[in-house]
Amino acid sequence: MTSKVKAALKKLKSEVKKARLVAVSKYVSIEDVKEAYNLGQLDFGENRVQELIEKATSFQNLGLEKVRWHFIGHLQTNKVRELLKVPRLWAIHSVDSIRLLEELLKRENDFKGDELKIFFQVKTSSEEEKSGFESEEELAQAIQMINSKKGTKFKVYGLMTMGPIRTDYFEEAAVRSFELLKKIRDEISSRFAIKDLKLSMGMSRDYKLALDAGADFIRVGSLIFKPNLQEQTKNGVIGHEH
Ligand SMILES: *Cc1c(COP(=O)(O)O)cnc(C)c1O
């Protein structure tokens, strides 16, 4: 296990260059996350609050302080307080509605860190189950909500998207999604004079396309932790891993 994870991390590190690799650890045990941490991987992504709490608490108890936790999953408003209390929570990539942002702002005191990076999830493909902001107006409103709150620890940090999954032409579709996210980023940036909004895009199957399109953060899981599954999906043995 270790040698495979090590090889996958090494390869990805050499490919990401200036971008940052978020290793999506939702598939694996705390032990496996610790192994990756000990190999120098510090950024981890989780998509379920409960699992993140368990892993982050374990890391805290062991004094593994360099870890940066990224929440990447759909967040229900009734889980907001628990999420904000997670030790070493570094970023939320999946703020996907005004309503959720309102709840986060309301519960901000539960966050004990210095700064929490906020990515707004943008819907860049028409797949039904994908959530996210659908208009620049709404995004603009969300950004203003944070920027107008005095003394907030939330930082408008970037935009996140997911390429489409259920398409025969996933590569073209992914590139379209990523280019669209970049275009939205550029428009928002000039409109609000926000410098340096980051792009969080690209997963195991499309991270290379995302890097080509200018990703600042890629979120890769199965390629690191489930290399066998990844092989099988590539060969079409398993339909969709999601
Ligand atoms: C699971 C997940 C990933 C990682 O997906 P892989 O295909 O395993 O690399 C990335 N982003 C989000 C939002 C996820 O839920």
Outline of the structure:
By secondary structure, the chain is α/β, with parallel strands linked by helices. It has ten helices and eight strands. An eight-stranded parallel sheet has the order 7-6-5-4-3-2-1-8.
What does this protein look like?
- This protein is of the alpha/beta class and 242 residues long.
- Helix 5 packs parallel to helix 6.
- The protein has an 8-stranded parallel sheet.
- Strand 3 (68-71), helix 4 and strand 4 form a beta-alpha-beta unit.
- The chain has 10 helices and 8 strands.
- The protein is 43% helix and 17% strand.
- Pyridoxal-5'-phosphate (PLP) is lined by residues 24, 26, 47, 72-73, 162, 203-205, 219-223.
User: What does the largest sheet look like?
Assistant: 8 strands, parallel
How many strands? 8
Bound molecules: pyridoxal-5'-phosphate
Number of helices: 10
Binned strand content:
15-25%
Structural class: alpha/beta
Topology diagram in text:
Blueprint: H1 2-16, E1 20-24, H2 30-38, E2 43-46, H3 49-61, E3 68-71, H4 80-84, E4 89-95, H5 98-106, E5 116-121, H6 136-147, E6 154-160, H7 170-192, E7 198-200, H8 207-212, E8 217-220, H9 222-225, H10 227-234
Parallel strand pairs: 1-2, 1-8, 2-3, 3-4, 4-5, 5-6, 6-7
Bound molecules: pyridoxal-5'-phosphate.
List keywords for this structure.
about 240 residues; alpha/beta; eight-stranded parallel sheet; about 45% helix; globular; disordered C terminus; binds pyridoxal-5'-phosphate
